[in-house]
Amino acid sequence: MVDEPSYEVSFGLRQVAAVLDGSKASLRALSVLKDFAQRYGSRLVLIYNGGDEEFVSMVRESLERSGVNYSLERAEDPMDYLRRKAPDLILIPLEGRTGPDALEAAGPILAALAYTESSIMVLRY
Question: What is the CATH number of the domain that holds 98?
Answer without folding.
Answer: 3.40.50.620
